[in-house]
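Structure in, sequence out. Go:
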C-alpha cells in the first residue's frame, strides 16, 4: 500500500506525506521502491517540494530503506507510539524532491 496526502494546514503547503508498506510476503521484490517512486512522482505532480514519513524507531528496515533512498532523519518524538504496552520513539524522515530514484529494497 502507498497513501499520498497533503497533511493538515499546519504543514507547509509544499509538502506531502508518503506512508507506504508492502506486505511482508511481497518484500524484497522492489515493490516498496516502486511505491516510493510513484508516491514521490505524485507529490511532484501536485507541486510539492518535500515529502515526509514517520515510523516507529523499532522499524529498522523502513528507516534504512528510506535513508538509502536519500531521506534523512529530521526529528525524533520521544515516546510517541505505544507498541506492546511500551513507549517507542517516532522517527520523522524527509526528502527533497528531485533526488535520486529509489534503489531496490533489501
Amino acid at each position: 500500500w502507498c497513501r499520498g496526502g497533503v497533511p493538515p494546514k499546519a504543514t507547509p503547503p509544499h509538502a506531502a506525506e508518503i506512508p507506504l508498506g508492502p506486505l511482508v510476503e511481497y518484500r524484497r521484490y522492489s515493490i516498496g521502491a516502486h511505491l516510493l517512486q510513484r508516491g514521490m512522482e505524485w507529490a511532484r505532480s501536485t507541486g510539492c517540494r518535500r515529502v515526509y514519513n514517520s515510523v516507529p524507531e523499532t522499524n529498522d528496515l523502513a528507516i534504512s530503506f528510506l535513508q538509502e533512498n536519500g531521506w534523512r532523519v529530521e526529528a525524533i518524538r520521544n515516546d510517541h507510539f505505544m507498541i506492546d504496552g511500551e513507549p517507542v520513539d517516532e522517527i520523522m524522515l524527509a526528502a527533497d524532491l528531485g533526488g535520486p530514484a529509489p534503489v531496490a529494497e533489501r
